[in-house]
Design goal:
Layout: E1 2-3, E2 10-11, E3 56-61, E4 68-70, E5 77-80, E6 92-93, E7 107-113, E8 119-123, E9 130-132, E10 135-136, E11 143-145, E12 150-153, E13 156-163
Parallel strand pairs: 5-6
Antiparallel strand pairs: 1-2, 3-4, 3-13, 5-7, 7-8, 8-11, 9-10, 9-12, 12-13
């Protein structure tokens, strides 16, 4: 039996907290400090969220060799497909890439810059949803967009990259 140092209640051997008052039965061992860890290389899991004012947005569509490259204006970009009735087209028209068959809405999603040099992606109430890295977006709730993220509009899949103006968008391998 272990006696609680606070209330003197007898507890079972091995109890970490007192069954009556909840006090810690023994002091926890301090975390052991490790020696130099500088030699352990880090592996980033996500791309950067920083999108500089002079950067361009590169959209690499699955199974297409040439990426689309855009400057992102202050009011953002609407992604979708041309409306055949009115002829109106979004800023990024995906119709030439089979968007109708793949379920892309006319006004499917928007990419908007923020004051903290990030981009946000937002589903605009599309019929077939927008997915960011496999997670379905809630309509009209913006999410941070990162370099290398996968976007899926319905069944239309692309990767987005951030590049400086001097950067060459063709350096991205087709996938």
């Amino acid at each position: 039996m272990k006696i609680c140092p606070n209330c003197q209640f007898p507890n079972h051997e091995g109890a970490l907290h007192c069954a009556r008052c909840g006090v810690l039965m023994e002091k926890a061992a301090a975390t052991r400090r490790l020696h130099d860890q500088n030699g352990i290389p880090g592996k980033p899991r996500w791309g950067t969220a920083h999108f500089g004012r002079d950067d361009v947005l590169v959209m690499h569509i699955r199974n297409k060799s040439e990426p689309l490259v855009f400057r992102v204006p202050a009011d953002g970009l609407v992604i979708g497909r041309r409306d055949p009735d009115t002829g109106l087209a979004p800023d990024v028209d995906l119709e030439p890439f089979g968007a109708i068959e793949l379920g892309v809405s006319r006004r499917h999603a928007a990419i908007r810059p923020q004051h903290d040099d990030t981009l946000m992606i937002e589903d605009l109430g599309s019929a077939n949803a927008t997915y960011l890295n496999g997670q379905r977006l809630v309509p009209y709730q913006p999410r941070v967009l990162r370099d290398g993220d996968e976007l899926r509009l319905g069944r239309f899949v692309m990767r987005v990259y951030f590049r400086g103006v001097e950067g060459d968008a063709t350096e991205i391998e087709p996938w």
